[in-house]
């Protein structure tokens, strides 16, 4: 398999953490690409018309995107441990969606500051995105005390990837002080070998 890769992409990291947890990481070739909302990568666009990361090329040559589809494919390939059966499935998938929403908001915050000229930046836009991210973090803060200590599914993998991205791009956000239960959970989960092997790097 081939995975289009960036060392700063939290959605790529989510896929790689899943691959490590499923014992599939050594079957994936990482292909580093540079892509931004204002600049496309021709090779990536040939395999994904949206020119977005992550994109996985299977051993059979099929292109899969986005991260949710890729993680579901890897989960099936690796024995199905990360998307629970029964009622737990929906809780894990909702948590994945909520965590991905944190990332969507964080990426829009990042683009507003880094890509838009200073005179055209819209503070209310950034503040609204941060409110969304904080609202989702608050939801997780209310839930985390009820999680099993050994919880491992696509929901918490997505959450850990989101928190790692906040650490990388928004170190002054102070999410640990605001959400201490979540911070305590992440301190433990972040020590998993899958997380240590996939640390985001600017």
UniProtKB/TrEMBL annotation:
Entry-linked InterPro entries: Glutathione-S-Trfase_C_sf, Glutathione_S-Trfase_N, GST_Omega/HSP26, Thioredoxin-like_sf
Chain ranges of the GST N-terminal domain: 1-82
CDD domains: GST_C_6, GST_N_3
Origin: domain of life: Bacteria
Full protein name: Glutathione S-transferase
Species classification: Bacteria, Pseudomonadati, Pseudomonadota, Betaproteobacteria, Burkholderiales
